[in-house]
Amino acid sequence: MKIYIGSDHAGVDLKTCVKERFGGRFEFNDLGTFTSESVDYPDFAHPVAENVLKDNGSFGILICGTGNGMAITANKHAGIRAALCWSPDIAALARQHNNANIIVLPARFISPETAIETFEAFFSAQFEGGRHQRRIDKINL
Prior knowledge:
This protein is α/β, with parallel strands linked by helices. The chain contains six helices and five strands. It has helices at 12-22, 42-54, 68-74, 88-98, 112-124, 131-136; strands at 2-7, 27-30, 59-64, 82-84, 102-106. The protein has a five-stranded parallel β-sheet, with helices on both faces.
C-alpha cells in the first residue's frame, strides 16, 4: 500500500518514528519536512492531499503539533477525508464510518507508542459502507 506522508517541524520526529516502524509493511512517499526548522503546515498538507487524490487506492498521513492545521488544510480538497486521530478507537472509527483516506496525528499530544497503535488501528480497519456511505455522499457540495 502506498502512503503519502508529510509533517511540519513539530511532527518530523514522530513521522520518522512511524516510517521506521512500518517501513517494511508500507511504501512511504515522504513529502517533507525533514528538519525541525519552522515551516508552514499547508506547504505539506496540500501535496499529500493532492497525491492521495491522484493515486487511486493510496492513503495519507499528516503530522503537526495539534493536527488541526493539517486536517483543516487537507479537507479543503474535495474527496479528501482527513481525520484527526489521537487514539486507536478514534482511528478505527474514522476508517469504518468516515472512510477517511488521510490520518492526521497531533505530535505534541500523542506519545510515539500511542501513535503507532493509532496508525495500526487506522490501517487495520475497513470501511463499513451502508448508512455511512450515504452520509459520506453528502459531504462534498
